[in-house]
């Protein structure tokens, strides 16, 4: 029986489904993107990320298009 299990969990950075993940050439950092945010992660730091782009409006009713 084949079973998948996570090696590490990177949590609490995206509110929406992640659309893209890209490993950087340094092999230590990667980018993750959802509909409204892009975050930069380090593989050894699982509880923090740098927010690169955040286009989420303060009032979600103002959002007309993504």
Features:
66 residues; mainly beta; four-stranded antiparallel sheet; 4 strands; 38% strand
What does this structure look like?
This is Serine/threonine-protein phosphatase 2A 55 kDa regulatory subunit B delta isoform. Keywords: Repeat, WD repeat. It comes from Papilio machaon (Old World swallowtail butterfly). GO terms for molecular function: protein phosphatase regulator activity. This protein is mostly beta strands and 66 residues long. The chain has one domain (1-57). Helices cover 0% and strands 38% of the residues. It contains no helices and four strands. Strands 1-2-3-4 form a four-stranded antiparallel beta sheet, with no helix packed on it. The radius of gyration is 14 Å and the shape is globular. 3% of the residues are buried. The model has no long low-confidence stretch (mean pLDDT 87).
Could you outline the blueprint of secondary structure elements for this entry?
Layout (H helix, E strand, L loop, with lengths): L19 E4 L5 E5 L3 E6 L2 E10 L12
TL;DR of this structure?
It is built from no helices and four strands.
């Amino acid at each position: 029986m084949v079973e998948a299990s996570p090696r590490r969990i990177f949590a609490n950075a995206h509110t929406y489904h992640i659309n893209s993940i890209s490993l950087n050439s340094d092999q230590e950092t990667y980018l993750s993107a959802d509909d409204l945010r892009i975050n930069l992660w380090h593989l050894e730091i699982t509880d923090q990320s740098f927010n690169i782009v955040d286009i989420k409006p303060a009032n979600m009713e103002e959002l007309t298009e993504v």
